[in-house]
Design brief:
The complex is a heterodimer. Chain A has 27 helices and 17 strands. Chain A is α+β, with helices and mostly antiparallel strands. Chain A has a six-stranded mixed sheet. In chain A, helix 7 packs antiparallel against helix 22, helix 20 packs across helix 25 and helix 23 packs parallel to helix 27. Chain B is an alpha+beta fold. Chain B contains two helices and eight strands. Chain B has a five-stranded mixed sheet with strand order 3-1-8-6-7. In chain B, strands 2-4-5 form a three-stranded antiparallel sheet, with no helix packed on it. The longest helix of chain B has 12 residues. Chain B is globular and about 45 Å long. The relative contact order of chain B is 0.27. The chains are: A alpha+beta, B alpha+beta.
């Protein structure tokens, strides 16, 4: 049966007045920005006053479930939280898998725009279209698992209720505080701190509303065919078996696995903190909504960290609390991962910051008094795990590291900014761009700062086909643009990026599924055009906030210190040359500003005018 | 006659007796290229590897796996003509995006 048209319903919530209203998003906006990340960028650009303090009531926090989420399409669990980041001051789009995104749509809404600040701690309960503000003072100080379970019991104990909440890290002002739902995190950039600054402890959702599909017949036929095909794709099946941690060994062999705060690219202790050891601690495999791959690993730590169970650690977390801190104790990695989730803070920024502090201590830039009695040296897993707690509680040195490595380096001084491994204030993750040159472009130009997820160039990092020389800089601008735009539309649709990148589906199939959802023809090329539009809009947001092409930077270590050993030995990042090529491919000027003709082509002239002061031609 | 050289072959493939890695030090005559080492390794071990559709074959490796010599992927990885040297490491793996 065909419905009239695709409907996208947003709930706008005024937290101070405890009022709310429904809004329908115009179809033309969906076709231009898709949903999720893209739609969030558009709403934030249109509604947020430039210069807004991210922690003020004026900041907005936007939850959006992209159009594929909850439809039954495989691999589409990733909802997006959009806001201005308290860590970087840039636009922030932070995505999480699990079940909350589907729960949002089943509750009757495709998104929530949270405005203002509650007078008292509250949480929102959204059930089959009904909205209720509930008191949350008794939830303050609770770890995220306790908070979720308390709320679930208050609401009748239904296991289908999905809850996204903050933990003590958000309450205490950790700049990279996350939002946790189940075991999954809206991890990066401090969305949890923005939620805390709104005095909102959590959002709970449940319902039985059907997710809109304009052409359900052909949609089901195609998604069934994709699922059937996926069962025979070797790469997908293996990805499901071990999940992301398996790639640690590959990236290490390729010599770009950052070790001891990026002092090297190969970790000699890798086999002690590998997926093989993780499998020995496996409780069971886990999955996100509508995913036939099930790459998650529920893992249990052994002594001396018995009692800690976590879904993960994933690749980045393994790295952050493994090679980055010179740690070979896998049970400490599991404990650190779980503590981060319980406190509600990002594992990459937490681990990156601790590795940074370890190098500061090694170089004598932190005194014994600064370290608060901890022997914070590379490889000391007890000190590492204790420091996770101290960051979550903002205690001692943890209080400084909770500000992020850029701010910490500014306080510590010396030459510490040289090896503070961050971009735009966001800590960079687990691929050394001296051994994967396109990744330098992802880190330096990612709109939210130093992250891999806005363009994980797997041909370089993991050697996926077709062959690409990771050490060459030739043609890398075009390679990066392709991945950046592709990720932008996959994020906006609500897809996990891994199955499409492992042969699970092609982009013609993605475009067809989307066209069946919205009831309009949508060719593959339009997906890439939408991705390009989104990437440019996010850049315009940042430029309006005062950023420039000079912020497309990397930590000095990567530009000046040659990789000491391994396949990338002797390499630095030739960032200026890479950026020049990338800007040219993007049709941005030599300062990295999108040219008027490019904005016209992308139908972003109004936004360009607002951000850059150009007149419409 | 020149003495054989030793190379370490690391396989991060599908399932090898329940887990996804297998290492073997192989002795080969001087002048052997990477392809010959990979072929010899494949012939020896394929029967003990289980793929998603049953028994693994040499063809599986040729079609789907990447070969690295000392951490560097071999361009157009069927042209594995580089001559191995004593102490070289050859890595064979199924490339997967996920991190």
């Amino acid at each position: 049966m065909k419905s009239e048209k695709y409907k996208n319903i947003i709930l706008r919530v005024d937290l101070a007045r405890k009022k709310f209203e429904k809004e329908e998003i115009d179809q033309s906006k969906i076709l231009k920005f898709i949903g999720g990340r893209g739609l969030g960028a558009k709403i934030l650009f249109d509604e947020l006053k430039p210069g807004t303090d991210p922690q003020s009531p004026d900041n907005k926090l936007i939850f959006l479930a992209g159009p594929m989420i909850g439809t039954g399409a495989p691999w589409a669990p990733k909802y997006c939280v959009e806001t201005k980041s308290p860590l970087t001051g840039t636009i922030l789009m932070s995505l999480a898998g699990g079940f909350f995104g589907a729960g949002m749509r089943n509750s009757g809404y495709d998104g929530f725009i949270l405005e203002g600040r509650s007078e008292e701690p509250d949480y929102l309960w959204i059930n089959d279209g009904k909205v209720e503000f509930r008191k949350a003072s008794h939830l303050r100080g609770k770890l995220t698992d306790d908070c979720q379970e308390t709320i679930r019991q208050e609401l009748g104990g239904d296991k289908n209720i999905q809850i996204a909440c903050i933990g003590p890290a958000g309450e205490k002002g950790v700049r990279f505080a996350s939002i946790i739902s189940g075991y999954r995190a809206v991890g990066r950039g401090g969305a949890g701190l923005v939620l805390a600054s709104k005095n909102l402890q959590a959002i709970a959702v449940n319902g039985t509303r059907k997710v809109p599909l304009v052409q359900p017949g052909p949609f089901r036929e195609l998604q069934t065919a994709i699922r059937k095909k996926a069962r025979g794709v070797e790469r997908l099946v293996m990805f499901g078996k071990y999940g992301t941690p398996r790639n640690q060994l590959i990236v290490n062999e390729r010599g770009l696995f950052p070790t001891r705060n990026y002092q090297g690219g190969m970790f000699e202790g890798i086999h002690e903190v590998s997926y093989i050891k993780q499998q020995e601690r496996l409780i069971r495999k886990t999955t996100c909504h509508s995913c036939p791959v099930a790459c998650g690993n529920l893992t249990k730590a052994r002594a001396p960290y018995e009692g800690f169970e976590t879904e993960g650690p994933e690749y980045e977390t393994f790295w952050a609390f493994g090679a980055h801190c010179g740690n070979t104790n896998i049970d400490a990695v599991i404990a650190a991962d779980r503590l981060c989730d319980q406190f509600g803070m990002d594992t990459i920024s937490t681990g990156n910051g601790i590795g940074f502090a370890m190098e500061c201590a090694e170089k004598g830039l932190l005194s014994k008094a600064d370290l608060g009695g901890l022997d914070l040296k590379f490889g000391n897993h007890q000190a590492m795990v204790e420091m996770v707690r101290r960051i979550g509680n903002r205690q001692g040195l943890g209080d400084l590291l909770a500000e992020g490595t850029r701010r910490a380096a500014e306080k510590i001084g010396g030459n510490s900014i040289h090896f503070a491994m961050q971009v735009k204030g966001m800590e960079i993750p687990a691929y050394d761009p001296r051994g994967a040159k396109s990744m330098a472009l992802t880190y330096s130009t990612s709109p939210r700062g130093g992250c891999h997820e806005r363009g994980l160039i797997s041909r370089e990092t993991f050697g996926t086909p077709p062959y690409l020389d990771p050490l060459s800089i030739e043609g890398k601008g075009a390679v990066a643009q392709f991945y950046h735009d592709r990720t932008a539309f996959l994020d906006s649709l609500g897809y996990c990026i891994f199955p499409p990148n492992n042969g699970g589906m092609d982009f013609q199939e993605v475009a067809s599924l989307f066209s069946f959802v919205v009831g309009e023809p949508f060719p593959e090329l339009d997906l890439f055009k939408a991705g390009e539009r989104i990437w440019n809009l996010e850049r315009l947001f940042n430029f309006r906030e005062g950023l420039t092409g000079k912020d497309d930077a990397l930590p000095p270590r990567l530009l000046k210190e040659p990789m000491p050993a391994g396949p990338a030995k002797g390499h630095i990042v030739e960032l200026d040359t890479l950026l020049k090529d990338y800007y040219k491919v993007r049709n941005w000027d030599e300062k990295g500003v999108p040219r008027p003709e490019k904005l016209k082509e992308l139908d972003l002239e109004e936004e360009g005018k607002a951000a850059l002061g150009w007149k419409k031609t | 006659m020149e003495k054989n050289i030793k190379v370490l072959v690391k396989f991060y493939g599908y399932l090898v007796k329940g887990e996804g890695e297998l290492f073997e030090e192989m002795e080969v005559p001087p002048g052997t290229n990477v392809k010959k080492v990979v072929d010899r390794f494949s012939r020896k071990h394929c029967a003990s590897i289980t793929g998603s559709s049953g028994t693994f074959t040499q063809k599986n490796i040729e079609q789907t796996h990447v070969v690295m010599l000392n951490g560097l992927s071999m361009e157009k990885d069927r042209q594995l003509t580089s001559i191995v040297r004593d102490g070289d490491q050859i890595t064979i793996f199924l490339p997967i995006c996920g991190g």
